[in-house]
Amino acid sequence: MKHFIILWFTILNLAGCALGPDYKRPHVIPPASYKTPPPHWKFAKPGDHHPRGMWWEIFNDIQLNALVQQVSISNQNIHSSEAQYRQALALVNAARARHFPVISGTFANTRGQGTAATNSGVTIPGIPRSGITETNRLLATISWEADLWGRIGRTVESNQAAAEASAADLQSALLSIQSLLVQTYFQLRINDIQRQLLEQTAIAYQKSLKITQNRYSAGIAGRSDVVQAETQLKAIQAQALDLGVERAQFEHAIAVLIGKSPSNFTLKPSTVVPVLPELPPGFPSELLERRPDIAAAERRVQAANAQIGVTQAAFFPSLILGASTGYQSSVLADLLSSSQQIWSIGPNIAVALFDGGLRASQKEQAIALYNKSVADYRQTVLTGFQEVEDQLSTLRILSEEAKVQQAAKLAAQESVMLFHNQYKAGTVSYLNVVTAQASALDAEIRSLSITGRSLVASAILLKALGGDWRSASLPM
Questions:
Q1: In CA terms, which of 14, 50, 115, 388 is 20 to 30 Å from 278?
Q2: Which residue has the higher pLDDT, 7 or 56?
């Protein structure tokens, strides 16, 4: 018993050891600032556990708010990611269970034929030399693997980091689908406004056609003017109808994103333009910390790092302490009598002496996986910087373009009015009117396109930042 106690304390001391490198977050060199203002940025640790807020509410669209809130409830990709996260949690619990002893109970009844005589010819009393024997055994067994080299602890660490990465994947999937829904919704609404514009333009062209027909009937205008006016009207009507194809696809995409069948979902047209949020003069640096894809990549590095320790521990012997107690008898009625009691206790040490390089190869594989995960993490960080930079530049350039396009639209509208009056006065041909009207319509469509692209870029920027950029949504 004294030797057993000494062995026990020695095992407990060794169990505190863990092979393999302790985890350190890979170093990433961040840019000093973004090319596009605001420049007040710093590289920060992943903080995807921070709340992102209901970031889509920044666009002040009630119908959009209702749609986005259905994503986390009904979207099947989110359900899949959530199930994967629960699977990762189960793996963590399975790894932690190996820290505890395993207790099992068995009952066995065996019959066999053989001989009880020894090599010297001496027969064991009470047992026939040959014949059928019956043995009944009732045992309770306990076994516990001592984590001498930290193999179990590193496995728990690896699985826990993988579960945290899976949780970040779930948040990343949710954020991506929400962002995709917001972008699709903006495109659908711009489509609605463009269709309304074309319908209003068709009404104006219809009036122009009527005027031209009257002038033709009066002998003031030629037949070619009437043909041009009819061609222009039909082209606009066809263009308005063609927008229906695109709108139907947008509507179907939204239905799938909120987990509904496209045949059971309808979104009524609306000509209300969502509010384009203004960029603040400076973003809080904590915003980029909330990107779940960066957090997931970083935690996969930690999981791969722990696996190196698991493979290193395989080079050392494993120690399993076991004990059993119970009863054994050839007569079932006498099985539980004290005279039939048996017990055993003792350690079991095992080590692989030769495996043809298997363990060394597994360690090299773990190191290579770690190096890959480090590179993936750094690439994810760089991609995050790129995405933010892209959308900041896009919004800045589109803002400047919108001002120029607004001036072009006003000039085109004035040109239509001037040429139309000149045509009525008979100083210019109808071709001038058609050209001016086409230019004005093109300017209107371009202006709407810039608005739509700006809304989509804002949604992508919010996704790139990990959520809402309003400081009120951040933890104090």
A1: 50
A2: 56
Look at residues 131, 141, 132 and name the one whose alpha carbon lies nearest to residue 107.
Answer: 141
Q: Which pair of structure tokens corresponds to residue 164?
A: 């945290």
Which residues fall within 8 angstroms of residue 444, CB to CB, at 6 or more apart? 197, 201, 409
* 0.85 exceeded by pTM: no
From first CA to last CA, the distance across the chain in angstroms is: 58
Q: Hey, how many other C-beta atoms are within 10 angstroms of the C-beta on 361?
A: 12
For 372-385, how does the pLDDT look when each residue is reduced to its tens digit (9 = 90+)? 999 999 898 888 88
Q: 103 φ, ψ to 5°?
A: -115, 130
The DSSP line for 343-395 is: EEEEEEEE--S--TTHHHHHHHHHHHHHHHHHHHHHHHHHHHHHHHHHHHHHH
Q: Which amino acid is at 344?
A: S
User: Cα Rg for the chain, rounded, in angstroms?
Assistant: 38
pLDDT tens per residue across span 323-362: 998 888 877 777 777 677 888 888 888 888 888 899 999 9
69-78 residue pLDDT tens: 999 888 888 9
Burial group, residue 396, by CB count within 10 angstroms (0-12, 13-18, 19+):
middle
Q: How far apart are CA 273 and CA 436, in angstroms?
A: 26
Crossing angle of the two packed helices 358-425 and 292-313, in degrees rounded to 10: 170
Distance CA 185, CA 191 (A): 10
Which of 19, 1, 59 lies closest to 274 in space, CA to CA?
59
Hey, what domains does the chain have and what are their CATH numbers? 17-108+149-317+358-473 (1.20.1600.10)
